[in-house]
Structures are given as structure tokens and as C-alpha cells.
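pls ignore typos typing on phone
pyridoxal-5'-phosphate + seq
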Amino acid sequence: MTEQFDLDRYGRTQLEARRGEKWARDGSAAIPMWVADMDFPLAPPIRRALEEAIATGDLGYPVSSLEPTLAAAFADWERSRHGLDFDPVSVVVTTDVVQAIYFAIDALSAPGEGILTLTPAYPPYFGALDEKSRKLVAHDLAIVDGAYRFDAAALRALVAAERPRLMLLCNPHNPTGRVFTRTELSELASIAIDADLVVISDEIHCDLVYPGSTHIPIATLGDEIAQRTITLSSASKAFNLAGLRCAVAACGTADLAARLRATPKRQRGRANNLGILAAITAWQEGTPWLDAVLAHLAANRERVTGVLAGLESVTCIPPEATYLAWLDLRRSGLGDDPASVIAHRARVTLMAGTEFGAAGRGHARLNFATTTAVLDEALERLAGFLGAR
Ligand SMILES: Cc1ncc(COP(=O)(O)O)c(C=O)c1O
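k done
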């Protein structure tokens, strides 16, 4: 299956010629394993759809009529793949997931109010809270029984003390790669219901889950939680379309949808037509390609965890989802920001753990969604540098 899509097709020269920030930012000085983009050829149906639009010059102003088709494709995908059922009318289309988070924060909380999130957390969450003058209410995940987990009693106590307005959940979780279980999600849902929190559930990594784990949208856990949840997603992670600007928010009620849409249309901007087209095609025809990518990523995950397991200075719990490995480098002696030393000395660019909040000190995030050859070279460099520590 993997060969059919030739996911190892691009060599270093082709990748280094890419204009996306992953490869363009640092030139050839280091192997980029930071921002969450993949290095594979596009899924063939998506490529065909985009090429056809370009060949016919179909690049006029976006038409609203594409949005219901997008919402329906998203609803079908979520229902058949993840068991999440919602009315496509409740879907708000945005240019990206982070933009939807900003709208939700604006619509559903006031400056000074708290937003609960599990840390370490995806860096733009901190930026959103900061720029919107909301208070971060953070609960650190900790390794318990070999997995990153929250402490439900401590979380409840934190919510009682800080009285946040919103819960910003990331499931599957970036950067730890955790896929929260039904029991854990039920705890979170119960905390949200008891404290009257609206849940913004960022599920953008939901299609990048490895065998042994199952993604459960929190909104599937009953009407009470569904009605207070906004499920955010996009085809951009699983199908590698981040530059095309299109994301979706499935709102638990018409009222939540109306509140998200309250920002004037012109101020919200519009999703890109090509992005909408690509997402529709991904959700309607992308499964064979996604299956091949998941097999490739699973093999890469084994290579990464296999190499790192041999290094005293690193701890890495295999991610249950995402193509991101969260490296605990606190034993390496490289200080709070090991990524900066590693970039310089091993010439591999990881994402600095400190960007994920205080809980990320001494950590770094490694993106392994690349070709076998690039991954092997990066791992060799990392093992060479870290093995000596
Ligand atoms: C958890 C999470 N949310 C959102 C995003 C970004 O999504 P978008 O580009 O649609 O804003 C990412 C990107 O890696 C992510 O990991």
C-alpha cells in the first residue's frame, strides 16, 4: 500500500526547494523536524481536484455554496470514522483551527476570565489567551503508568478555585501524542458540565491515530456535553494541506454557531476555495492515501522510539497519535531549551519544549512525518550527539 503512493518520493533537494516554512526557514543548515507539516506527495485525488481548478482558471471569489458541501463532507467523515453525529448546519467554516479558537474565545468569554487547558500545550493556545487577555488556568499532565495523564481530583479542585469559563481541550494531544480514553474524557465532560464550561475541543489530529488507540470525540459522550462543545477540525493535518487555509467548527447548538458567527463576515475573512475543495476531496476520497500514510508514520514511529530507547539522556513515550514525538531531555544536561543546542550541534531542528509552556522545560518535540532517508539521517545525527551525553 505504501509503495503505491510512494511516500518516500521526494529527495532532500526537492524538499529543500519547498517554500513552506518547515523547509524554507533555515535553509539546508539543519534537518527541519519542527513545525507540523509532512514531507509526502499530495493524495492523488486532492492533487487532481486542485490541478483541475487551476487548469480551468477556477480561482474567482469564494462561493458560499461550497461551504454546505464542505460541512456535509465533514459531517459524513466524522460520523463514519469517529461516530460523531451533528447537523451540518451547525458547522462554521474558518480559515484555520487557531482562528476558530480566537472566535470562540471572543464569543464565549470576557477579558480577564480563565480558560482551562492541559499543559504542555500547543503554543498558539498561549498566544490566543495572551492576545485576548484571558487567564491561563493550566493543569500539567504527568507520566503515570507509562502515559501522560491528568489528575482528575486536582483538575476539579483547580476549576473550583479558578472558575474558568472555557475548557480548551486538545485530543489527540499535541505535543504528548496522547489519545484520551473514554474514562478520561468522561471525567473531563463531567468537570465541564458541573462547572458550566463550554468545551472547545481541538481534534485536528483525530485521523492520525495508531493501532491500539481509538479517537473518541468528547461530543459523543452524551447530549449534555455535546451541547456545550465546539469540535474543531480540519483536513490540514491528516492530509497535509495547512497552506490552503480551511478549517471547520461543529457547534453543539445553533446558539453556539450563531455566537461564533457573530464576528462580522468581512472581519472573519473567508476560507480559500482551493482549501475547501481539497478538504471536501480529502474527506470523500482520501481514505486509501491516509491508510498508507498511517502505515508509513507507524513505521517511522518505531524507528524514532527504537533509536531513542537506546539513549540514556532521552525519554520518549511512543505517541498514540500524531506524527510528533515528545522528548524528555532533562537528563541530557542541555538545560531548559535542549532544542537550541541540538539545532546547533546536531543540525536537527526540533520544536523547543518551552514553547509548550512551563511544563515543556527540558523537552523538545520531534516531527517524524518525513521520508525514510531524511528520518534516518536525522536520527543518526541525534543519536551521535545525544549518545555521547
Ligand atoms: C493541536 C493543533 N491545533 C491546531 C493546529 C493548527 O491548525 P490550523 O493550521 O488549522 O490553525 C495544529 C497544528 O499543528 C495543532 O497541532
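Residues 36, 96-98, 122, 170, 174, 202, 204, 234, 236, 242, 247 surround pyridoxal-5'-phosphate (CB under 6 Å). The chain is about 40% helix and 15% strand. more later
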